[in-house]
Amino acid sequence: MTVEKTGLKAAAAIGTLAIALAACGGGGSKGSSDDGTPQKGGTLKIAGSSPPDHVDPASAYTTVNQGFSRNWALTLFANKASNNFSETIPNYPDAAAELPTKENGGISADGKTYTIKLRDGLKWNTNPARPVTAADFVRGLKRTCNPAKPAGAPYYTDLIEGMADFCKGYAKVDPKSAKAMGDYQEGHDVSGYTAKDDKTLVVKLKQPAGDFLNIIGMSFASAAPKEYDNYIPDSPEFRQHTVSDGPYQMTSYSDKKFVLERNPNWDAASDKLRKAYVDRIEVDLGQDSPDQVQQQLEQGTADLAWDQPVPTTAIPRLAQDKNKQFRLQDNPAVNPYIVFNLLSPNNKGALAKKEVRQAIEYAIDKVAIAKNYGGVNVAQPVHSAVAPGNVGYDASFNPYPTPNDSGDPAKCKQMLAAAGYANGLTLKFPYRTNSNHPRNAQSIQANLQACGITVQMAPDTNGNFYGTTLVTPADAKAGKWDIAAPGWGPDWYGNNGRSGLQPLFDGRAYGPNSVDYGDYNNPQVNAAIDKANQAQSPTEAQQAWLEVNKLVMGDAAIVPLITQKYSTYQASRVRNAQFLPAFQTYDYSLIWLAKK
């Protein structure tokens, strides 16, 4: 999913702190273990930079947003928060009563039909309280392809029987009419996704999928109450009228501050993943400097960061002091990376040429990018579209090697000339203004300048960058941007090729809100993705996704930059902060606050 890692200033390499940094990477600590007796009450204060690009679960596809929605929009299945990375990988029943298996009759013998029972105790925060039903989950899935703000993930149309046809018709509905969208949803069925009764869902797949519980457990597929048909998805009106079936409910929302408070209709006894210790969660935004946020955390005026890791400049100090409130968390991903707008008419369509993109592969000093995050103990250069720890990764695969990963501008120039661009190019580069991204952009600009490429940088907010700039096809076709540096992490860990490679490189899914930002579309890659999705064994899946990785990198579809650990810090009163690596955040519902 789209990731929002941050930081601002480059620090010197901190190799001398390797031992201290390693010590911060796991185990319990004063600020992150459940030492003492949990206490209910208090306000968890969270400080950060940008408002959500999407609040509506049907549209939200950034790490911080999906982690946030977990507190008020339940999914059928979910991962458990933990500071032990391996414990976060398995699926657990959430709104579902149990995990479906072939043994308990939840999965058919051919692996294509799932029968999912809802657990008891699920209620909306309506007045009077109303049960959450299987039909609400059907409505939630239908909303993923609404024409106003659709989900970026292609999983549902690819896998669920009848979903592609439903979405094809939905795309023709007026995206500015809530009534038209609501009428379409209520008047058209998805043959593969039905409510057998109030507490039973039946899902029929086109083909078996060993990762389906991960897919149907994403926030996109959370239940949606009938009230949502009254609003254009993710509109300002929607954001003022969210409905909750989780432990918290949104009681106020603005782009500068929003508040969650207890949902009085939530049944704590039936929820096995959440505790809801604090009474209130306040998120204050508009603080682009991670140093400013870090200062608040250390002073105790805020408890956690919303969308920013620890500032790079603070990492050596915290590591050297073995500060127990500081932690480096595992969440292996290619983040950030450079993406190309293949639709851009600028430079007479130069970026559509593979040879031009291959030249740019050699231009970038990846070590300089890694230093922006604290050096090689925090971030490491990557050479392919798959990071270590994910299916399809091969440590020996490095198709565009440069000396010490520091770039080779001479080779870039030579290849550009051979491609017909001896006089260079001029590229438009929107960059995020929060945290580390300005520094990254300056480094990339300097690298490309050394290659003979002029880069015109344009500042962009984090929310607009992901919510509009990169996901509006008309803007891509108009050449409003040429290159950008987003981040991406898999939607889940384990067998995750479908979530790590397919969303970025399956050209069949390109359109509004797609995360194949620049319309990369290679039929050979698409076919390889289809083959990999049908792999039955781990060995077969590894080889199949490695083939996708090699094809994508042969096309120079992206320039992978680094993979990094996520640095976190919590105020001294925070207890039981358990990490959700796919979301780069802590599970707010598990945190309790010690009395000062």
What attributes does this structure have?
596 residues, three-stranded antiparallel β-sheet, 20 helices, 25 strands
General description of the model:
The protein is an alpha+beta fold and 596 residues long. Helices cover 27% and strands 16% of the residues. The chain contains 20 helices and 25 strands. Helix 11 packs antiparallel against helix 13 (409-418) and helix 19 (523-533) packs antiparallel against helix 20. The chain is globular, with a radius of gyration of 23 Å.
Topology (elements, then pairings):
Elements: H1 18-23, E1 43-47, H2 63-69, E2 77-79, E3 91-93, E4 113-117, E5 123-124, E6 130-131, H3 134-142, H4 155-159, H5 163-170, H6 178-187, E7 193-197, E8 200-204, H7 212-216, H8 236-239, E9 248-253, E10 257-262, E11 280-284, H9 290-299, E12 304-305, H10 315-320, E13 326-329, E14 337-340, H11 354-361, H12 366-372, E15 379-381, H13 409-418, E16 425-432, H14 437-450, E17 453-460, H15 462-469, H16 473-477, E18 483-484, H17 497-500, H18 502-505, H19 523-533, H20 538-554, E19 558-560, E20 562-564, E21 566-569, E22 574-575, E23 579-580, E24 585-586, E25 592-593
Parallel strand pairs: 1-11, 1-12, 16-17
Antiparallel strand pairs: 2-3, 4-8, 5-6, 7-8, 9-10, 10-11, 13-21, 14-18, 14-19, 15-20, 22-25, 23-24
Helix pairs in contact: 11-13, 19-20
